[in-house]
Amino acid sequence: MEFETRFVVEQVHTALLADSADNAHPLSNPGVGSPQAVSAMFSTITYNKGASIIRQTEHFLGSEVHTQGLINYLKRRSFLTAKPIDLFVDLESVGIETGALEAYGPQFNFIEYYKSWTEQPGHPLLSVNVNHATGRMTITQRRFSINTGFSSAPTNYIVPITFARARDPDFSNTKPSHILTDSVTIIDRGSVGDEWVIFNKQQTGFYRVNYDDYTWNLIALALRGDDRTRIHEYNRAQIVNDLFQFARSGVMTYNRAFNLLAFLENETEYAPWFAAITGINWLRNRLASSPDLLLELNDVVIKWANTVMTQLTYVPRDGESWIESYLRYQLAPLMCAMGVPACRAAATTQFQALRDTDTPVPVDSRNWVYCNALREGTTSDFDFLWDRFLTHNVYTEKIVLLQTLGCTPYNSSLYKFVNAIVSDNFEVRPQDYTTAFSSAVNGNEGNTMIVFAYIQDYLDQVTQAFNSATTPLAYISSRLRTESQVLEFQRWVNDSRADLGDDYQAVYNNANAALESIQWVQDVSSDLNDYFTGDDITFDTTTSSSTTTEQITTVTPGLLVEPITPEFPNSAVSTAVSLLLLSLGVTVHWFF
To answer: What distance in Å separates the CA atoms of residue 437 and residue 433, rounded to the nearest whole number?
Structure first.
């Protein structure tokens, strides 16, 4: 099931994004004192970041040492309450006893290390400037912000670092070689001359890494050439994830980031592509307000994905691995959403086989086959799948259908679907309302205004179903693409103020985020066009000189909405994380 691979891109990357907001909460918060505050702690940060910090520490101490520390802690605190310090002390004790901490000197304090990650919000961006003539590397740490690049809060973390280089590409030894405690640290690479260096082996550490331009050039050349597979798959995924977030936050231009990301044209592994899909989907959603830019982006992504989709195809292959099937499950919906003819044709063919001859669609293809068959199909195709939902006795299939029925573009079918969601008819379970409603709004670009019209006609019914108008209207406001749509939405909100009651202010304010998103697209359009209208650059490595970190371009993106961890079928990763957190017993309630 590729637990470790999926953990990096599904848990670590999701945690990094949630943790990059300026108002992110720390893992430990003894001041929690109300039901609302307690509820707020059950978040992506608590679960995903908490598990990521545990993973970082496991690689820091070594798996056996870390496991023994957990055993000691669970035995010592069995049938007792616990605080974070109890866990820290037991891990530190076994680390000292086994010599796992000896290499870091007498000044290193393990408990302070752990506190720097649990009592402070956020995480660092390491800016690495390499002097290739001397091998000296200057590392600057600052707290990363998704909105402005760097947070204004003066935050320092105790960071365990690892790195590999071209002449010693050992990504298997994840024991940290250095510990960063200061805002600026200089260390020796251990070699002189031009060679790439990549920090954070297998992305075991919870931080992002940016490099000077020349070192990025060396990394890009390796990724575009035969050296690509010498760089660990998780680190290629790390690079992809970092570059998308650097461009989004203004740390790097999109022109520069996309030139570095062009290596995806030869990439075929799951982790880098999952990281890419996350970044691409976010950007495609933003660029929906600029159709010309969106088409340009689609062309780039289709080009990048040609090699991997040629290998995967749109039908299961004999002998393919589980992870290859899962990668198709992730990539095919994107290809179909961008209108790739081969994807749309495959969806239609497999759907017609289901409808005409009752030939089952492969389980891992149903999400995109059902959706795109509806996009290309008729109202009778919607009725066929709706009847399948009503009569099917396997609920995992019913959930897939709820997630895809909203892909119909027809008003009558959408009204039928939304009416079934909000009516008290027991056709859709209340716990599935948001899944189904999101499908209705997001299934096609044109669906947003159709569903908005439904809400205007049946506001009381929608509000009663969701116990609030805020959630369903937030789905609408997040997909308003033009200033005129936002103004129309806000005029209706003002006219409906009495009916909205206490929801009024939240609903109105959510529309302002759409305006900020539209403005953000205008701000980055020139940058994106620089890439779309040019060719991928040939990276210059003729002069090895130490360069300064690129000046940040201040671009304010739309307000950060904390991401929801994607719902993966039979997610063994989520199960494994939950079991690990539960094994820490009472500490979870204090520590996370």
So the answer is: 6
What pLDDT, on the 0 to 100 scale, is given for residue 539? Answer: 75
Q: Are residues 112 and 182 in the same domain?
A: no
In a domain, residue 179? The reply is yes
Query: 141-171 burial, b for 16+ CB within 10 Å, e for fewer?
Result: bbbbbbbbbbbeeebebbbbbbbbbbeebeb
- Per-residue buried b or exposed e for 233-258, using 16+ beta carbons within 10 Å of the residue's own CB: bbbbbbbbbbbbbbbbbbbbbbbbbb
pTM: 0.90
Do residues 215 and 131 lie in contact, with contact meaning Cβ atoms separated by under 8 Å?
no
Residue 93: its H or E element: helix 84-98
Q: How far apart are CA 173 and CA 125, in angstroms?
A: 22
And the tokens for 474?
């937030």
Neighbours of 591 (CB within 10 A): 24
For tokens 């009472």, the residue is 586
The reply to whether 507 falls in a domain is no
pLDDT in the model for residue 470? 96
Of the candidates 297, 242, 266, 37, the one whose C-alpha atom is nearest the C-alpha of residue 127 is 242
Nearest alpha-carbon partner for 456 in 493, 406, 510: 493
Domain end (from 211, 229, 247): 229
Which DSSP symbol is given to 360?
P
- Residue 112 belongs to domain spanning: 25-120+566-591
* Residue that finishes a domain, picked among 177, 210, 229: 229
**In terms of domains, do 217 and 134 share one?**
yes
Same domain, 148 and 182: yes
Q: Left (φ > 0), alpha (ψ -120 to 50) or beta: where does 105 sit?
A: left
The pLDDT tens digits of the residues spanning 30-77 come to 778 788 888 888 899 999 999 999 999 999 999 999 999 999 999 999
Residue 171: which CATH number?
2.60.40.1910
Residue 82's region, left for phi above 0, alpha for psi from -120 to 50, else beta, is: beta
Q: Which two tokens stand for residue 218?
A: 């060396």
